[in-house]
Every structure is written in C-alpha cells, then in structure tokens.
Amino acid sequence: MINTLDPAQSPALGAALGLAGETVLVTGxxxxxxxxxxxxxxxxxxxxxxxxxxxxxxxxxxxxxGLSIHPVEAEVTDEAAMAAAFDTAVSVTGRLLxxxxxxGIAFVQPxxxxxxxxxxxxxxxxxxxxxxTTRLAAERLPEGGSVVLTSSTFSASAFEQWAAYSASKSAxxxxxxxxxxxxxxxxxxVNAVGPTATLTDQNRDYLGxxxxxxxxxxxxxxxxxxxxxxLVLPFAFLLSPKNQxxxxxxxxxxxxxxxx
Length: 260
What we know:
Distance between the termini: 25 Å
Largest sheet: 7 strands, parallel
CATH topology: Rossmann fold
Structural class: alpha/beta
Oligomer: single chain
Radius of gyration: 17 Å
Number of domains: 1
Helix content: 40-55%
Low-confidence stretches: none
Number of strands: 7
C-alpha cells in the first residue's frame, strides 16, 4: 500500500513545519516530480512560484485546485530569466523562505554512442542550472532559509546507459555538500533529495510495464518504484526552518537502493 500525504491533513502539517504562509520557488514544475512538489507544497499552505519552460502546463497547474501557485516561464540556464523569477517570488509575500532546484534532463543511451553535445547539455541543465538556481536563491534568502536540490540514487550507484545523468547527479549531491558548508555561517542551508526511479507521467507508460522496469525494481529492496507524491514530505522536511542543523546532506528516498 502506498500511503501518501492526505490533502486534508496538509495545512496542519504545513503549519507544524513552519511552512504555512511562506514562499518557495520550484524549478522543473511543468510535470513529473516538479509538478507534484509544487502542488504538494502549496497544499501545505506555501505560496509556490512554479518555474518551467511550458507556460500552458504551468497555467494548468496553477489553476487546478485554487492553490497559491504562481506560474513563471523561464529556462534554468538563463541567469537573467531566473533572477527575474526569483524577484517575482520575493514579491509574492515580501520574502522568500526556500527554493527547490528540481529541473533536470536525461539522455539514456549506450555511452559509446553518446555525443559530446548531449553530454554538455545534460551538465548544463542538471549542474549549471542547479547551481544558478541555488546561488540566486541564496542571494535572497533570509537566515533560516533553505534550498533543496533534486539528486538521484544514480548519483551513488552505477547503472548502464546512464553515465551522463549519473555524473550530473553526483555533482548535484556534491554541490549540496559544498554549498551547505560554505553558507552554513550565513544561516542558509543546502540539502538534496535522491529519489529512486519514479513513476512520473513522462515514464509511467514505460516503467509501468513490469518487463521494462524489472531490472531496476530488482535493485530496490522495497520491491517497487517511487510515486512522485511520496517526495513531498521529504522536500518539505528539508525546507522546514525547524531543521537548522541539517545541511549538506543527500536524503535518499529509494526503498533501500543505496544501502550497502
């Protein structure tokens, strides 16, 4: 049984975590994990600035439940566009509590055939985009603010045909460690969440077929794939200002994949 957060209980939980009424910016919010996080954090009572490249999807997300979701179209590798997105986020309530650097891409193919162009594009979005998002957030966050990065179990263990993605996510986890240490004296925390293979709308048709996902599921002791909604609480926990001594960590949400 998959026990996700009950929307009816979300406002009370958001208040308990110190998130209710606060503003957070979420990148990669057009679909998948990002859309689930934007919706889930808004249900917790947060004002969510949802950033992505598909304005139509962002508008649909913002209008779905009457939640406080503010769509902003921007590309994470465009520093000027992202700076404007953060200025929008600050304008919602006058201050920004946190950011989620979630936007990412993946090319899955044999590495012997992987082009330099696709490798650079992977690093540009998954590493440079994450760094820019994190730095722009840190410039605006108050003491007690938090940035949470989306890493992956692929940052900690190898899987065939995922070399570029795995390398990029290893860099994301190291960014969390490095920036977490650098900015701790300022009271700004940086952590990461490392999901296992997740049944997003982009890959559900493929991974939802047992013969396609069998090799991945076999490496997960819990014996199943992750649902995007199961990530809302881990991200909320790390965003919470109640957790001032947690920084530089990668929290793996993986059913035991990364256990030795």
